[in-house]
């Protein structure tokens, strides 16, 4: 029988396992990854990989860093950003910033996979047990510093609601109070455009898009975001996109399900007041 080793880099990854395991129709073991350098992690995992047909994790910065190491060590195929399972060896994944979907076939075993979180419906729980590892290998990676902003907000990659802001937020404090404040009233995660990140308005890890995170929430609220192809590549599979923009001709309105032509500095506080009442 095919077997999946599901790697959870974050607690929130665990909720993505049942749907993905169901898509492949197999049982799985779960491994909750501690924060160790990716090379050490891959070396230890390679030791227990025998017997698994698939080693998979939701797409995230951590899985994109660690799993290619593992595929290299095992000399086995890897497919990233899987959005659907066609057959046990055939998968669909977006290419060219999501403008085309490639169908890829793997030859070799096991297959290392990252898949888009929220891309798979949650299925019935399948049987899973937890695997534990000892980390004894030396690392070639030197951790220079580590920081955790500890915002207490939902994880951007798996949040049900995301509120994002763009360049017009002008400075970090405004971004935090206007976008962060509104997100908190909805229990949402916070995202940003690259323009906002590059201008120091928002932290790097909040960037959504082609070169940032791909999000698939039920509701994506874009405030002061023009709708560049690079930003849309990261949000286009959101169930409902709401855009707030002063320019009625902004490209984001072409993809938005709901559009509000207006000033975010007026609209968001008004919506926030409505939510409180
Ligand atoms: C290789 C490459 C990769 C990239 N990757 C990414 C990526 O991953 N993610 C990403 O986001 N971008 C990415 N970009 C950048 C992208 O091309 C755009 O420059 C960026 O998305 C624009 O960000 P923005 O919408 O915040 O700013 P702008 O394009 O300046 O848009 C601001 C919008 O806000 C509106 N506005 C102004 N004031 C208000 C107000 N008071 N209220 C409401 N609306 C207002 C304006 O009408 C405008 O539409 C990439 C670019 C390149 C070349």
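-> sequence recovered:
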């Amino acid at each position: 029988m095919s077997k999946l080793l599901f790697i959870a880099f974050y607690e929130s990854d665990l909720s993505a396992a049942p749907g993905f395991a169901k898509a492949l129709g197999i049982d799985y073991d779960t491994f909750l990854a501690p924060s160790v350098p990716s090379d050490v992690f891959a070396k230890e995992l390679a030791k227990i990989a025998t017997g698994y047909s698939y080693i998979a994790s939701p797409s995230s910065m951590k899985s994109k860093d660690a799993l290619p190491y593992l595929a290299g060590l095992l000399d086995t195929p890897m497919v990233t950003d899987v959005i659907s399972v066609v057959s046990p060896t055939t998968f669909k994944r977006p290419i060219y910033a999501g403008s085309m979907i490639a169908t890829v076939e793997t030859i070799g075993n096991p297959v290392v996979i990252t898949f888009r979180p929220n891309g798979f419906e949650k299925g019935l729980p399948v049987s899973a047990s937890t695997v534990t590892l000892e980390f004894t290998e030396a690392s070639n990676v030197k951790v220079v510093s580590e920081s955790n902003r500890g915002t207490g907000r939902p994880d951007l990659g798996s949040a049900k609601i995301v509120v994002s802001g763009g360049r017009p937020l002008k400075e970090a404090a405004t971004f935090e109070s206007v976008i962060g404040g509104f997100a908190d009233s909805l229990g949402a995660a916070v995202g940003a455009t690259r323009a906002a990140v590059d201008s120091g308005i928002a932290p790097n890890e909040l960037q959504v898009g082609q070169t940032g995170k791909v999000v698939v929430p039920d509701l994506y609220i874009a405030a002061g975001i023009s709708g560049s192809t690079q930003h849309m590549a990261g949000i286009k599979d959101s169930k409902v996109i709401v855009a707030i923009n002063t320019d009625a001709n902004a490209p984001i309105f072409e993809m938005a399900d709901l559009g509000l032509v207006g000033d975010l500095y007026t609209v968001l506080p008004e919506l926030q007041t409505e939510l409180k009442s």
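Residues 172-186 form the longest helix (15 residues).
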